Amino acid sequence: MKLDDIRREYTQGGLRREMLDASPITQFEKWLKQVVDAGFPDPTAMVVATVDAEGQPSQRIVLLKQLDENGFTFFTNTGSRKAQEIKHNNKVCLHFPWHGIERQVIVYGEAKPLPTTAVAKYFLSRPEESQLAAWASQQSRPVSSRKVLMETFHSLKSKFAKGQIPLPDFWGGYCVVPSKIEFWQGGEHRLHDRFMYQKQADGTWQIERLNP
């Protein structure tokens, strides 16, 4: 296989300044709806990039669970690597790779912990198996085998067989408050269209075109 021969043209349309909404959140919602309507799998999947105390970046895919003018919300085990890195440095980057429609969105911002009431409300809305999985997994820590993990899962299933599954004290969520959001549309001959929204001191957003 020759990796340098793998390429394709981007032909699904350009992006112009007059096509953009003044609010990047509104613009994001428009694009997300188009991805959902097109039937692409995992439309809310996003890469979350964090940095550890030594400056080593790490990435993982999580699901966007809420979106409003405050920012982009996801939930996780607070003992996980991502949560520990956010505790050290809450500046994160989100990436939505919507290859099927030749688009990407990149969000730069700060991850703010959600209040327990918001975390509990979402946790209780999850399927029971997902709630149990949150209890069973010591996320990012070594485990000797899948068998051990499943034994823990089934043990917890028996323990919580009657009544509501409680919120683990090691489970939380974050709202990524954006300072910059980039919208990328693939273009012919690698002349892609890129627009960056940057938040101003007065709360408005400045938009500028970037070179591809």
TrEMBL record:
Job of this protein: Catalyzes the oxidation of either pyridoxine 5'-phosphate (PNP) or pyridoxamine 5'-phosphate (PMP) into pyridoxal 5'-phosphate (PLP).
PANTHER family: PYRIDOXINE-5'-PHOSPHATE OXIDASE (PTHR10851:SF0), PYRIDOXINE-5-PHOSPHATE OXIDASE (PTHR10851)
Catalytic activity: pyridoxine 5'-phosphate + O2 = pyridoxal 5'-phosphate + H2O2; pyridoxamine 5'-phosphate + O2 + H2O = pyridoxal 5'-phosphate + H2O2 + NH4(+)
Pathway field: Cofactor metabolism; pyridoxal 5'-phosphate salvage; pyridoxal 5'-phosphate from pyridoxine 5'-phosphate: step 1/1; Cofactor metabolism; pyridoxal 5'-phosphate salvage; pyridoxal 5'-phosphate from pyridoxamine 5'-phosphate: step 1/1
InterPro entries: Pyridox_Oxase, Pyridox_Oxase_CS, Pyridox_Oxase_N, Pyridoxamine_oxidase_dimer_C, Split_barrel_FMN-bd
Keyword Flavoprotein (UniProt): yes
Protein residues bound to FMN: 60-65, 75-76, 81-82, 104, 139-140, 184, 194
Domain Pyridoxine 5'-phosphate oxidase dimerisation C-terminal, first and last residues per copy: 171-212
Organism expressing this protein natively: Pseudoalteromonas fenneropenaei
Taxonomic superkingdom: Bacteria
EC number: 1.4.3.5
Gene3D superfamilies on file: Electron Transport, Fmn-binding Protein, Chain A (2.30.110.10)
Gene Ontology molecular function terms on file: pyridoxamine phosphate oxidase activity
Gene name as annotated: pdxH
Cofactor(s) it depends on: FMN
Keyword Oxidoreductase: yes
UniProt similarity note: Belongs to the pyridoxamine 5'-phosphate oxidase family.
Keywords for this protein: Flavoprotein, FMN, Oxidoreductase, Pyridoxine biosynthesis
SUPFAM superfamilies: FMN-binding split barrel (SSF50475)
Binding residues annotated for substrate, in chain numbering: 65, 122, 126, 130, 190-192
Enzyme class of the recorded protein, top EC level: oxidoreductase
Cofactor binding summary note: Binds 1 FMN per subunit.
Domain (Pyridoxamine 5'-phosphate oxidase N-terminal): residue spans on this chain: 33-150
Subunit (UniProt): Homodimer.
Annotated protein name in UniProt: Pyridoxine/pyridoxamine 5'-phosphate oxidase
NCBIfam families: pdxH, PRK05679.1
